[in-house]
Design brief:
2 domains, 59% helix, globular, binds iron/sulfur cluster
C-alpha cells in the first residue's frame, strides 16, 4: 500500500473504536465463523491497533464474516466489528488484495442481480456465479431439485420501483 492509501484508510477506520479493544476475546468466543478464519475477530482488532493494515486487508477473515453482529452485541466496549469488516473489504477491493475471490465474486453477482431487478434472483445469481467461476455443472442436481420443488424460480421477480435501487448504485458503483 502506498503512504497515501494508508493515510486515507487510517482516516476512514479511525472513526471506529477498535483502539478501545481490550483483547478479551468475547467477540471470538461467540463468532459462528471462526473455524473458517485465519485471523480471529479479536486478533484482527489487534492488527489494526498495531497499524498492520496490509496484513488485515490480506486476511481471509474479512471475507468469511457474515455480518451477524453477534460480536458487537457481546463486546463490552461496543466495538462494531461488522462495520470494520465492511471497511476492510472495501479497502481490499480498492487496493486489489482479495484473499477470497469466490466470496467476492458471489457478493458482486448478488449486487448485480439486485441492481437489475430491485431484488435478488437466486437462479440468475447461481447461473452467473457458476458460469463466471467455470463450475457450471457443479451442484446441478441440487439446482434441479430446487427448481422442481419451487424453492427457486426461473423468472426473476422484479420490483416496481427498481429505479430507486438503481439510484443507490449510481452513488456507489460496483
Ligand atoms: S469483545 Fe470487544 S473488547 Fe473484547 S476482544 Fe472483541 S472487540 Fe475487543
Ligand atoms: S459479525 Fe462477523 S466477526 Fe462478528 S460474530 Fe458475526 S461473523 Fe463473527
Amino acid at each position: 500500500m502506498t503512504k497515501n492509501a494508508i493515510k486515507n484508510f487510517m482516516e476512514k477506520i479511525a472513526e471506529r473504536d477498535f483502539s478501545f479493544c481490550l483483547t478479551c476475546q468475547t467477540c471470538t468466543n461467540g463468532c459462528p465463523c471462526v473455524s473458517l478464519m485465519d485471523y480471529l475477530p479479536h486478533q484482527l482488532m489487534r492488527l489494526l491497533q498495531w497499524e498492520e493494515f496490509e496484513e488485515a486487508l490480506k486476511s481471509k477473515a474479512i471475507w468469511v464474516c457474515v455480518g451477524c453482529n453477534a460480536c458487537t452485541h457481546a463486546c463490552p466496549m461496543g466495538i462494531e466489528i461488522p462495520e470494520i469488516m465492511d471497511i476492510l473489504r472495501q479497502e481490499a477491493i480498492k487496493v486489489g488484495i482479495i484473499a477470497e475471490k469466490d466470496i467476492y465474486e458471489f457478493h458482486r453477482q448478488m449486487l448485480l442481480s439486485l441492481k437489475r431487478h430491485g431484488r435478488v434472483s437466486e437462479f440468475e445469481l447461481i447461473l452467473a456465479y457458476k458460469t463466471k467461476k467455470g463450475h457450471f455443472f457443479e451442484d446441478i442436481t441440487l439446482g434441479l431439485q430446487m427448481l422442481t420443488k419451487k424453492k427457486m424460480k426461473l423468472k426473476p421477480a422484479r420490483l416496481k420501483e427498481r429505479k430507486k435501487i438503481r439510484a443507490f448504485f449510481e452513488k456507489c458503483p460496483l
